[in-house]
């Protein structure tokens, strides 16, 4: 299916009303102490006047799946939220990149590489509950992507394990941040080798910062190994957004590249 702008297919007055209602509710309840109470607000509804199905995540965002958001002609890429076809391309790219093993690195650090090829990049619940922002080339092939997930769209993410005490909200409380806040989780960023420069990821992250603010998120955060976290901090800093790497709070070890230690990274969206 060729890419096209789909925003005009939604009733503009309905979108305006949904965004106004969202803003009013956040003003009434800015702490969102029980974020699951808002989960129903992010389902699909039918506009009684037009019989069109309205996806509230997309309506509040203002950016619809398949709608080009940013053009990067200097690197031959465009950025948009993925439709189902582009999502599958993103999952395939994620699987390919996360299972690649550099042979020279394997020889030096075999203990780090034994589980790399066991990774499964296929769709998970976090993907289904969130949105996927991708960059495509001129042939509409996905060359980069990342998952965007607001805290009240899902109970626990794949990064969390409430039984062992590793949840985002418990982490926020322990480090003295607002554990009642709405936040965005930005995870599983991947980029094809020819596009590994700050231009593409800076374009992607600039949109995700904007999206996080639209949904009244106080933080944008993720769990990352140090090298990835440092790279993200550089990009966020260039975008005027302060980001901390919380090395005092090593995250639980999960099956990834050699069970490498990961750390929470937090970008502050409200100055």
Polypeptide structure, described:
The chain is an alpha+beta fold and 271 residues long. The chain has one domain (63-268): Aminopeptidase, CATH 3.40.630. It is 34% helix and 20% strand. It is built from 9 helices and 10 strands. It has an 8-stranded mixed beta sheet with strand order 3-4-5-6-7-8-10-9, with helices on both faces. It has a two-stranded antiparallel sheet with strand order 1-2. Strand 7 (183-191), helix 8 (198-214) and strand 8 form a beta-alpha-beta unit. The protein is globular and about 45 Å long. The protein starts with 11 loop residues before the first helix and ends with a strand.
Count of runs of 4 or more consecutive helical residues: 9
Q: Looking at the structure, what is the overall shape? A: globular
Instruction: Estimate the helix proportion, in percent.
Output: 25-40%
Low-confidence stretches: 1-11, 26-43, 45-50
- Name of the top-level CATH class: Alpha Beta
Quick check: average pLDDT? 81
What layout of secondary structure does this protein have?
Layout: H1 12-28, E1 44-46, E2 53-55, H2 56-61, E3 68-72, E4 77-81, H3 84-99, H4 103-108, H5 110-113, H6 125-129, E5 131-136, E6 142-150, H7 168-174, E7 183-191, H8 198-214, E8 219-224, H9 226-238, E9 243-245, E10 263-268
Parallel strand pairs: 7-8
Antiparallel strand pairs: 1-2, 3-4, 4-5, 5-6, 6-7, 8-10, 9-10
